[in-house]
């Protein structure tokens, strides 16, 4: 038996030897438990085509938040994070009401009728919404819906008063039904597009996307597939009569991999190709872009949130597969009209604990990792992905960090918005990223991220800059050691480059962690709000650093916390 087993009897010299041996064993064990270094190789000479700004698309249920205080502030910030115009999609632009904002509700009173049934058009509130976008250089995705009360085949009940915790089906009221007069509906659409051209000009409106409805394969549409297709024919005809060069599309179904969705999606596509048009009697219908939705599915497992990115990617992949199966349509732009970790932005964390990923860095790392795979899925199916709408905005006059799926709370930006700021710095074409990394798009699509962490990168290059976004993501929101990262970049066209290293994690670019350190105040002071606003901006991990590129190569090493995201931006003269 070793002398060290009788440590309380030992001479000092032997005790020192035993202590050294014990420490050596502990260090050896600790090293065995440390995460292995991850090497990411980026080759800027390997061009993978344009890095389309598919992330520069946002949307939300409540259109009347658009012109409110925090709404205008956030829209300004969103518009500033992109060098190209940001597209914005909102619901309820034709819903009857006085414009009062509420959760899962909005209205514009665009269409009413007099006692004789004659149409009365009012564009005041819609103009207020679209003016807010246009003033910021943003582009509306003009969602044509929902049904005005005077046109609904089942108008009552119409206004709902849903709140978190209520039955979600309570929201589907009179606005979800088909029109009692398709001709009047078509004239409403025609008048709206014509008014838009008169107000904003033909060139501006030509740059918008006009789309019909939202998720008609579920209760957002209380009609049949055939009635939706008929509505589409009347809608597309009206848009084109008002502006022949306008872009019109659909069908905005959700969950392409769901059995019920394919029974809606495919008949719509078949009709566009070879169906009899309800208005013209000719074959087919105009279609300039194709839309569908894809969502993930988080849940609580053993007391922590477990995401399911695979569910979202499978929906995206199935949607791409359906589009690719139509030779005459497969090259049309695809807009994933809502692309999110789950399906209810207004379902707060306090009442829906599976949504507890939203305030912190899990939402931001999920966003980085999932958007990168959307490019790969589109490439694999050979389709034209134009945009993926993040269905998240802000909710006025709600508790601080209540856990809605939003980009800001009470005017303070949340960590996820800083990932979009990172995306905004990525310009030019995609560059190759490789070196035996644990996950590719196919593995996440099929298995999600349930084994080792997904540590990977997205890279881009233009004439004067290159950028590498690196993330450390896992579906399970559990503590883990920081990952040692080595990013090896080759193909830099200059000998001397300036590196800016931005970071989103618990310490950087994170207003939520600062708020918690304050004691989670329900009513922060003016000074605290100023501190939170500062913490909500994108921050540098280190000071900018000049690096010498030997043969066009540099190596950047750093530790990246679980659910953290780094952006390495290189610039040169």
From TrEMBL:
Residues 39-536 form the Glycosyl hydrolases family 39 N-terminal catalytic domain. The keyword Hydrolase applies. Residues 1-30 form the signal peptide. InterPro entries: GH, GH39_cat, Glyco_hydro_39, Glycosyl_Hydrolase_39. Keywords: Glycosidase, Hydrolase, Signal. The keyword Mitochondrion does not apply. PANTHER family: ALPHA-L-IDURONIDASE. Belongs to the glycosyl hydrolase 39 family. It comes from Spirosoma flavum. This is Beta-xylosidase.
